[in-house]
Design goal:
CATH superfamily of the largest domain in chain B: Periplasmic binding protein-like II
Largest sheet of chain B: 10 strands, mixed
Shape of chain A: globular
Largest sheet of chain A: none
Radius of gyration of chain B: 25 Å
Number of strands of chain A: 0
Structural class of chain A: mainly alpha
Distance between the termini of chain A: 43 Å
Order of helices and strands of chain A: HHHHHHHHHHHHHH
Oligomer: heterodimer
Radius of gyration of chain A: 23 Å
CATH superfamily of chain A: MetI-like
Strand content of chain B: 15-25%
Shape of chain B: globular
Chain lengths: ~280, ~375
């Protein structure tokens, strides 16, 4: 009896929170996506219509942009996870007593504004930035090179940089659960460090890797701030279009429809990935 | 069950409770209202008037400089500000039932508020500064033959360009689509704005763009995207890029021009043969507000001289108060407003009111330009 009470006592508050601030808004958004237009005020009743989805599908460029955004998100997630793995490995197995200090250092970027971290790349990649100044100073070029910035490449690079500290955390948590005695046993049985990594550490930390990948992939599909700041005219992502329909056009129905399509597509992609890709096979367990 | 026997906890709670009541008690008592001066027909002195107003405005416009006349005259009135990020945002808030007494849309969006029954008519006889506003400005706040809003701030849009990077003078809006400046162009991130530019270039009626014309406009701006470095959302972003030499030719408001002149960057503000654009900011009163009289006083004070001077000198925006405009002496500002050349205003395209269909179609067109492969 007591355990039931404890269970509900712990689950109810976050549950209610999720219902109020996740399920209800999502339902409202789904409802808005069935609206024809915004005339007559926000709160007037309307007859549901699939018109917005029709417009969406007929304008082929929106779905194409969603695919491109998902592709960029995939690239960012894979590279960020791969780069985060050595950091997490170091923290878990090599840092020893200094691990908390290094973890703190890893987390310090979170304490700065997201916008600052993005704009910092302008100081590096921009026409007056560090990279160009270096190349000009070395005499390799005369005019600054402009292809580093205001394009999709700059967006991908910046997003990888922003996500690496996030991606390291689930992997670190998973690696902490690897028993040191297993590592010792492998050593005693003659395994090289590489073999140990491949046959023991990697398979055991797989849940953390997968969590890390999806932690980065899912939000990046809908990313709009970074492309807005440094993507340039041709670097828009799907999230920018949604934002434009809500804030510039006041066209909530079409914006909601775009958002619902992204939600469903992302969920489908994740489910499909979980079903089709047996990651354990990839890692040769 | 253990007896609840923690005197320390009680002492702490008691102390906290005492502190809270002390803090509440320390709050200043509300200012005593003095009785009106003379008989019942005379209004209370402005300095004695009390009340509160809420204004839905753009970020930065809550600065005390922009309502200084009202502050001086009515120091006992509380003015609170809410913020909107764009015309669409402000419109969405008001349509959803925001209780702000006053709000600040720009020309082009004014008609929507009238159509949706969100504005009160302005009793201009109560505005002491109304005669300082030129008739052409007054007309911009009129809808369906009635004065629903007052004009307050205005400015130009034109082509701003680096004279040291561009050979010759630019005399047409078509410069924004010129491949000669590839990679160094920047336009505002706004669909209706770009539709207007195309209409001027082609000589079309910007209030009556047909679907075929819109399709052509979409194709032209999709092609232009390859020449465009980035779409700017705010003037600081644009001025930094022009000052650094990344952008040579831009769609810009004259605030950017004045700022760059002040930074001694070699720029010029074109007088395109198709004419510059001008936009005007409006202040309107929400329908059903209980503070109608106070709101009118606020609007009247907005048109005041000190407020207007701050608007001109701090933001380089024009004031609807013509006396303020006539009193400008700064040479950079005079150049920015083309004050010495009255023919500029005659050739200017003032932003017309958008219809809801145009708003939806033109913003969707712009999203398709951005989403195009």
């Amino acid at each position: 009896m007591d355990r039931r009470r404890t269970f509900w006592g712990l689950v109810l508050p976050p549950g209610l929170w999720l219902v109020a601030f996740l399920l209800v808004p999502l339902t409202l958004m789904a409802a808005f996506s069935s609206r024809g237009d915004m005339r007559g005020g926000i709160l007037r009743a309307w007859t549901p219509t699939a018109e917005q989805y029709q417009v969406l599908l007929e304008t082929g460029s929106y779905t194409r942009l969603l695919a491109v955004s998902a592709g960029m998100a995939l690239l960012v997630a894979v590279i960020a996870t791969l780069l985060a793995y050595p950091i997490a490995y170091f923290l878990a197995f090599r840092a020893g007593r200094r691990a908390p200090t290094y973890l703190l250092l890893l987390l310090i970027p979170f304490w700065t504004s997201y916008l600052l971290r993005v704009m910092a790349w302008k100081l590096i990649l921009g026409s007056g930035g560090a990279l160009n100044s270096l190349l000009i100073g070395l005499g390799l070029i005369v005019e600054p090179l402009r292809f580093f910035f205001y394009n999709r490449g700059a967006v991908v690079l910046t997003l990888i940089y922003v996500w690496i500290p996030f991606a390291a955390l689930p992997i670190y948590a998973a690696l902490l659960r690897v028993e040191p005695s297993i590592m010792e046993a492998a050593f005693d049985l003659g395994a090289t460090p590489l073999r140990r990594l491949q046959r023991i550490v990697l398979p055991l930390s797989l849940p953390g890797l997968v969590a890390s990948f999806f932690l980065v992939f899912i939000p990046t599909v809908g990313e709009y701030v970074t492309p807005l700041l440094i993507g340039g005219s041709s670097g828009s992502m799907y999230g920018n279009i949604i934002q434009d329909f809500f804030t510039k056009a006041g066209n909530w129905p079409l914006g909601s429809a775009l958002a619902m399509v992204m939600l469903v597509a992302t969920l489908l992609a994740v489910v499909l990935a979980a079903v089709l890709v047996d990651v354990r096979r990839l890692v040769d367990i | 069950m253990q007896k609840f026997d923690h005197p320390r906890v009680l002492i702490v709670l008691g102390t906290v409770a005492l502190l809270l009541t002390a803090c509440a008690g320390a709050a200043p008592p509300p200012a005593a209202t003095e009785p009106p001066e003379a008989g019942p027909t005379q209004e209370a002195e402005p300095t004695q008037v009390e009340g509160s107003l809420t204004v839905l405005d753009w970020a930065g416009y809550d600065a005390a400089d922009f309502w200084t006349d009202f502050q001086q005259a009515y120091p006992n009135v509380d003015v609170g500000f809410e913020f909107g990020a764009s015309d669409a945002d402000i419109y969405a808030k008001m349509a959803a039932g925001d209780q702000a007494d006053i709000f600040h849309p720009y020309t082009g969006w004014g008609q929507f508020y009238v159509d949706e029954g969100l504005v009160e008519e302005i009793d201009t006889s109560q505005l002491s500064n109304w005669d300082k506003v030129p008739d052409s400005m007054k007309a911009l706040g009129q809808f369906n033959g009635k004065q629903y809003c007052i004009p307050w701030d205005w400015g130009f849009t034109s082509v701003l360009y680096r004279t040291d990077k561009v050979s010759g003078t630019i005399d047409s809006w078509a410069a924004l689509l010129d491949p000669a400046y590839s990679g160094h162009i920047s336009t505002w991130d706004d669909g209706p704005g770009m539709v207007a530019v195309s209409s001027w270039i082609h000589g079309w009626d910007e209030t009556a763009i047909t679907p075929e014309q819109l399709a052509q406009i979409k194709q032209e701006w999709t092609d232009q995207r390859a020449l465009n470095l980035f779409y700017w959302a705010g003037e600081p972003e644009l001025t930094a890029a022009i000052a650094s030499g990344d952008v040579w030719v831009a769609y810009a408001w004259q605030g950017a021009y004045a700022t760059l002149l002040g930074e001694e960057v070699p720029v010029a503000y074109a007088n395109p043969k198709e004419g510059r654009n001008s936009w005007v900011g409006l202040y309107c009163i929400r329908k059903g507000t209980e503070n109608y009289d106070l709101a009118l006083k606020f609007l009247d004070a907005k048109l005041g001289e000190a407020t207007g001077n701050n608007l001109v000198n701090l933001y380089y925006y024009g004031s609807a108060n013509q006396d303020v405009m006539n009193g400008i002496t700064d040479e950079a500002l005079k150049a920015a407003f083309s004050i010495d050349d009255p023919s500029i205003l005659e050739n200017t395209n003032f932003t017309p009111n958008l219809t809801a269909e145009q708003r939806d179609a033109w913003t969707a067109m712009w999203s398709e330009v951005k989403a195009a492969p």
